[in-house]
Amino acid sequence: MLKKLSAEIFGTFWLVFGGCGSAVLAAAFPEVGIGLTGVSIAFGLTVLTMAYAVGGISGGHFNPAVSLGLAVAGKFSWKDLPAYWVAQVVGAILAGGALYLVATGKADATVGGFASNGYDTLSPGGFSMTAALIIEVLLTAFFLIIILGATSGRVPAGFAPIAIGLALTLIHLISIPVTNTSVNPARSTGVALFAETAALSQLWLFWLAPLVGAAIGGLIYKLLWNEKA
């Protein structure tokens, strides 16, 4: 279990530092910055690379919603869920802290939103709480369905991280303008703690919506496509 939890800490750290770091450090320069597309690709690459690196140790969840959805689908032990959640949040907070130290390492640095998630005035596109709730539930549900399908016995071994990474890239391309894209409560927590906005006051939605969406996705897969059904 220690190896599994350490893998989840490292994997979640890489997801938050790489994905949010691309937004905080590299997307802020209009002339040479990577933009929305680059940030979306970066998030996908973090999951893809760490799924190959440590996925064989812990399963490569790196996300409390993923762990919950897998448990609902019968692919993960409920008794291990709390420990995984703790490891994932720890990894995300460590990444947020490391990114904060880098981001503030220049004169007159301002942290601002710090790639945090939000709705209403904290939404990049000014989208409402209802819009944020819907898109986070919907996209997390589909993310779980993709994860469960890609890791099923129907798919050739070794290709799952590619499908999962591309799915996360697509999810970000869709929803960055709406919520800055969460689908991952740990990712949301890790940067909200350091943001100079009211991100913490809206963090509840980015726990509730991804967890609900993941449970829905896990249940849909279990009922309709579970290979053991």
UniProtKB/TrEMBL annotation:
Where do the TM regions start and end? 12-29, 41-62, 83-103, 127-150, 157-178, 204-224
Q: How does it sit in the membrane?
A: Multi-pass membrane protein
State where it is primarily located: membrane
Gene3D superfamilies cross-referenced by the UniProt entry: Glycerol uptake facilitator protein (1.20.1080.10)
GO MF terms here are: channel activity
Q: Which InterPro entries match?
A: Aquaporin-like, Aquaporin_transptr, MIP, MIP_CS
Q: Which compartment or compartments is the protein found in? A: Membrane
Query: Which CDD domains is this protein grouped with?
Result: MIP (cd00333)
Q: Which UniProt keywords apply?
A: Cell inner membrane, Cell membrane, Membrane, Repeat, Transmembrane, Transmembrane helix, Transport
Q: In the UniProt record, which is one GO cellular component term?
A: membrane
Its family remark reads: Belongs to the MIP/aquaporin (TC 1.A.8) family.
What this protein is called in its record is Aquaporin Z
